Amino acid sequence: MSLRTRTLGDVIPRPASVRPVTGASFTIDAGTAVSAPATLAAVAAHLGLPAGPDGAIRLALDDSLGPEAYRLEITAEAVTLRGGSPQGVFWGVQTLLQLGPELPGGVIEDEPRYPYRSTMLDLARHFFTADQIKAHIDLLAPFKINHLHLHLTDDQGWRLEIPGWPRLTEIGAGPGTGVDGAGPGFLTLAEYADVVAYAAERFVTIVPEIDMPGHVNAVHVAYPELTADGQPVAPRTDAEVGYSSLVAGKEETYAFVEAVLKTVADLTPGPYLHIGGDECHSTPPEDYRAFLERVLPIPGRFGKRVIGWHEIAAADLPDDAIVQYWRIEAADDAVARAAAAGRRVIVSPADRTYLDMKYDAATRLGLDWAGHLSVERAYDWDPAERLPGVGEESIIGVEAPLWSETLRSVDDVRYLTFPRLPAVAEVAWSPRGSRDWQSFRERLAAFGPRWEAAGVRFHRSPEIDWH
Ligand code: TNX
Questions:
Q1: Is the ipTM of this complex over 0.90?
Q2: Ligand 1 mean position to 52 CA, how many Å?
Q3: Which of 53, 110, 375, 466 is the most interior residue, by most CB within 10 Å?
């Protein structure tokens, strides 16, 4: 731990309102207990302190606050944390954990700018186990990230058990799958459910993605009857995109899609199903639209809200569909039209949020098709100013995806994720007017010793004067 004195606002993401009271402070020690109603017992446990009815740290629900909002008051005698829901209290607990054990006095009133704050892990190009995903979730929650998008399928692999379609994982997750054949494995239904439950205990919603109609070579290797001519297809372990496609004119396609989406919907308590839709360079435009016209309504029939990469804006979208913008261009007419028609947008421009981009020319991992992504570039932009026609009211949130073509280990995931994810987390949580790069880099510096102590091999970017 650093010996520097922490001030009340030394938190990432920066809270909406901070009012320090000089002179007052509260120290958490071995005798400090937490009092919480039964509805907050599970949240209180994240503080790692004993429970007691007269605890000096008091948690409570307050329905005058928004669902993710919290109010934290620190005096010399007590710490009072109120939240609009258990989730709001949990975010307040994260703030306390970042500040503690020497808590500066004052009041923090906080709530997020956007409800959807997310990162994505690509399990298809390189598989990560349930335990590895859970460890990743532990590192996201402190930054108030509340969604984890799992890219479960792609040309190089299929990473979720689907009953009735055993070859998807027998072949699509076997030895030699993944980019360079270096990432076999899949989640059983029980493992997926375990990840979802673990995430939910940390107020993180899992957003499963089954990518279609493109990015399906692994499907065709497993089930050649789904190809246009029914002929066997060779497995692919290179990193090309845009060459495979489900066949829009074949009825078998839709039986497959329904079965898969039904399985995923039944297993997923969260409200979203992501159906991909990106980079369908080998799907004729009319086939792409015909396919999506049949597939976009399916999640709704299973009680889910559909998300797709922004290419889906070329099709007629269900009213509640969400479009995820990922490109680097300064404008996109189809996305602007979708926003004007009331569709919500997740903002993930590759040149600001893609965690698989190199930090700079010397970065040993990652890609650079969207340029280099420094910590400052990941921080110093505004989602509502990114796309003409896609203003604040159209934006549901921000996601930082991590594609795994060049990743081979959890250390690789962490190297690219930290410290850029905290930058994107602040973009998604903190009020626009409160954000400031100088302040951010000073607050970020304090995480160096903490990540080190936790064995997290983050990138020691020279942009930060690490403690
Ligand atoms: C584009 S962005 C892709 C992925 C690649 C990624 C690499 C998007 C929706 N598709 O297939 O993995 O670039 O950065």
A1: yes
A2: 50
A3: 110
